[in-house]
Amino acid sequence: MNKKTKNYLIKAIAITFLVIVLLITYLPIIVIALTSISSDKFGLSMTKPTIDWYIAMWKSRSLMNSIIYTLQISFFSTLISIILGTFSAIGIHSLSKVAKRRIIMLNNVPILNTDIVSAVFLLVIFQLVGMIFGRSVFGFTTTLIAHVMFSTPYVVLSVLPKLNTMNDSSLYEASLDLGCSPTKTLFKIVIPNVKTGIFTGGLLAFTMSIDDFIITYFVTGKRQNFSTWLYGSLKTLRNGLWNQACAYNTLLILITLIVVFGYEFISLRKKKNVK
Fold first, then answer.
1. What are the angstrom distances between the C-alpha of 111 and each of 107, 115, 153, 157, 220?
2. For residues 198 and 196, what is the distance between their CA atoms, to the nearest angstrom?
3. Is the pTM of this model over 0.85?
4. What are the pLDDT digits (tens) for 82-138?
5. pLDDT digit string (tens) for 164-206?
6. How many structural domains is the chain composed of?
7. Is residue 107 within 8 Å of residue 156, measured between CB atoms?
8. What is the CATH number of the domain that holds 75?
9. If DSSP states are collapsed to H, E and C, what string results for 14-60?
10. CB neighbours (10 Å) of residue 141?
11. What is residue 96's DSSP assignment?
């Protein structure tokens, strides 16, 4: 085998591997999108396209309640996680190397810990709190606390690298020397320099929150987010609810893509204007 043939073979293997990875990654999304417009209520065949399931989704009270609850939890947990994660990352960045390493290790515990262990731990804690107050505390608040707990570390890990790569570490000191207060310097110098990390961390936090099942199942109480609703509706999903669930997921994917590409487009335009 000559060198040219060997190069072609390597390229063919690389392309084949890439195609397989892309299929594994995006085929489920394509199937969900096709199911959402399939007229077959079992979602097993593609007879003719329809948007009836999107209309039915809005009319399904149980599904819409779960979606609204999911979005409420995801929005507030992401917002709180961004605030806590950003300020925590700034605080960690100002520590010595040894202290920084230790705090980062503690920050990674919720990420490395398995969901079931975190879920059982939170369940026990909230049950103890409920015993102290003499009533069940499971509900919106406990779910929100749980989501903030496992989302915040992702924001910290997204913001820290941006703090480490700030263009000029003396900007903070220069701003103080010019008369800015520490608070004004934080919001006008530090945060604008790490906004990409904040956006990435927020997107990760939102993604982790919106599709969480295990932890939410243990701490949510009577109300259900979309994932726990889906689990509880397994017996009736093949009655059109599966297509409605796929319609919701398709809309969610489209909105996410619009937000991501919109952010990238705005960032590229700003870079071009700066140049």
1. 8, 9, 7, 10, 20
2. 5
3. no
4. 999 999 998 888 888 888 888 888 888 888 888 899 999 999 999 999 888 888 889
5. 876 555 666 666 666 677 777 777 777 888 888 898 899 899 9
6. 1
7. yes
8. 1.10.3720.10
9. HHHHHHHHHHHHHHHHHHHHHHHCECCCCCCCCCCECCHHHHHHHHC
10. 12
11. -
Examine the pLDDT at 8 and tell me if it is beyond 70: yes
Helices H / strands E in the chain, number of each: 13, 0
- Per the listing, tokens 């609850």 go with 69
For residue 141, the enclosing domain spans 65-239
Q: Are 43 and 35 in contact (CB under 8 A)?
A: yes
Coil, helix or strand at residue 194? coil
Spatial separation of the C-alpha atoms in residues 228 and 234, rounded to whole Å: 10
User: 267 is written with which tokens?
Assistant: 């960032």
Residue 206 and residue 213: Cα distance in Å, rounded?
14
Domain presence at residue 261: no
Q: Please check whether residue 188 is in contact with residue 175, taking contact to mean a CB–CB distance below 8 angstroms.
A: yes
Q: Would 216 be classed as within a structural domain? A: yes
182 within some domain: yes
Q: Which residues pair with 38 in a beta bridge?
A: 49
Q: Distance between CA 132 and CA 127 in Å, rounded?
A: 9
Whether 209 and 78 have beta carbons less than 8 Å apart is answered as yes
d(CA 176, CA 21): 50
Closest CA to 202 of 80, 88, 71, 82: 82
Handedness of CA 164, 156, 158, 201 (dihedral sign): negative
Residue type, 141: T
